[in-house]
Amino acid sequence: MYNKHVQKLIMEFKRIKNLKQYNKYAELYEELLYRGLKKDEDKIDLLELLLEDFDNKTIQDIGIPEEMDPVEILAYLLEEHNLSKSELARQLGVSRQLITEIINYKRNISKRMVMKLSERFKIKPAAFSSEYDLKGNKNKMSAA
Predict the structure, then answer these.
(1) What predicted TM-score, i.e. pTM, was given to this entire model?
(2) CA–CA separation, 116 vs 97, rounded Å?
């Protein structure tokens, strides 16, 4: 069946039920990634699956992607994670102006930015890839 190591992991971690548990697991996940120890690979994989599962459930609960465009999703995530545009820009290694222009529908989200955002918020790139209208532009824009 399962070896003892896998059984211990299963007992240690449970399916994420709330944001407090999600944040705890996300912090541990980032800490283990930072350490980069081979012995932590199974924990990292399991935490990644649990975080992704919660993200996907949360995405479904708030109507992503059908009811929210990528900019609305980004604004929602900034609020949920209590992040300023400046702090997000710093974390992603981009300018605050870029984040502001995206939030204000003045600029589309590039494919590179889609990947940065999906990695930062641990959700599927599809959440940031759907088409949306820029202000002052009749044409729909998508990740370029």
Answers:
(1) 0.53
(2) 16
